[in-house]
Design a protein that fits this description.
Layout: H1 2-21, H2 32-60, H3 63-87, H4 91-106, H5 115-118, H6 129-135, E1 143-146, E2 150-153, H7 154-165, H8 175-191, H9 204-220
Antiparallel strand pairs: 1-2
Length: 238
C-alpha cells in the first residue's frame, strides 16, 4: 500500500511539473497570496506549538545527547544522499556518503556518533530528488508554501515522494514507533533553527522565501553561486 500510494503521489506530482513547470512566470512567487496565507498558518503553528516544544526539548536535553540525536537523523539521510549522488553522476560523492553510512551505522552506534568524519569521510551538503530533477533539467517552477511542510517549489514538491521513499523511517511497520521517531526528528530539526532566528529582519515572509530559494540554488549548483541575497531589500541590511 505504501508503494502504491507513492506511485499515485509521484504521478500527480510529475503531472504538475509538466503542466505548470513549463509555464512558470519569471517572478519566483506568482502564488504569493496563497503562499502568505499558508505562511501565516505555519507561523502560528510554529509560534504556539513547534517552537515551544523545540525550546523545551533543547532546555531539558544535555548537549551531548542532543548532538547524538542530530547525528542519528543525519545518518539516516545518507541513504537519500547516496541514491541521488548516483542519479546525478556524482560517483565520488556517492562513495564518500556510502562510507559515512557504513562507518557511522556500525562503529558510530547506529549513527549516534560521527566516527566517519575522523576517518576522512567528510559530511556533504546533502542531495535530494529535487536537486536531481534540477540536474536533469526540470524547471524550478513557482515558489510555494505548503501547510506544515513549509517552503518549496513546484520542482521540489515533485521530488517529495522519492525523498519519502528513501527515508528509512517511512519503512518502519510499527506505526507508534514510526510516528514517535518522526516526531522526534521534527523537534530536533526545529531546535536546530532556534539560534538562527535573530538573523530574520524586515518582512518575515519575504526573508524566508528569498533565503530558501538562494539556499536551494546553492545546493543545486554545488556552492558555485554568486551571493546576492538581500541586495534588493530596502528593509534588510543583513
Amino acid at each position: 500500500m505504501k508503494i502504491r500510494g507513492l506511485i499515485v503521489f509521484f504521478t500527480i506530482s510529475a503531472g504538475l511539473l509538466v503542466s505548470l513547470g513549463s509555464h512558470a512566470e519569471e517572478v519566483a512567487d506568482p502564488w504569493e497570496d496563497f503562499n502568505r496565507s499558508m505562511f501565516a498558518f505555519n507561523d502560528a503553528a510554529d509560534t504556539y506549538f513547534f517552537k515551544p516544544v523545540a525550546q523545551g526539548y533543547q532546555a531539558i536535553t544535555p548537549d551531548p545527547v542532543e548532538h547524538s540525536v542530530s547525528n542519528f537523523f543525519s545518518n539516516l539521510t545518507e541513504v537519500r544522499n547516496i541514491v541521488n549522488d548516483v542519479l546525478q553522476g556524482k560517483l565520488g560523492q556517492a562513495g564518500n556518503d556510502a562510507g559515512r553510512l557504513v562507518v557511522n551505522t556500525t562503529l558510530g552506534v547506529a549513527g549516534l556518533f560521527d566516527v566517519a568524519k575522523n576517518m576522512g569521510f567528510e559530511k556533504s551538503e546533502g542531495e535530494d530528488f529535487g536537486q536531481t530533477l534540477a540536474a536533469w533539467g526540470v524547471p524550478q517552477g513557482p515558489y510555494v508554501v505548503w501547510p506544515i511542510l513549509g517552503s518549496s517549489t513546484l520542482r521540489d514538491t515533485g521530488g517529495t515522494p522519492a525523498n519519502t521513499a528513501l527515508d528509512p523511517i517511512f519503512w518502519e511497520d510499527h506505526i507508534p514507533t514510526r510516528n514517535t521517531v518522526f516526531g522526534v526528528s521534527l523537534i530536533d530539526a526545529r531546535a536546530g533553527f532556534l539560534d538562527t532566528e535573530e538573523l530574520i529582519s524586515g518582512d518575515k515572509y519575504t526573508f524566508i522565501r528569498d533565503a530558501y530559494l538562494q539556499r536551494r540554488d546553492y545546493l543545486i549548483q554545488d556552492g558555485e553561486v554568486e551571493d546576492t541575497f538581500g541586495e534588493d531589500s530596502e528593509d534588510d541590511d543583513f
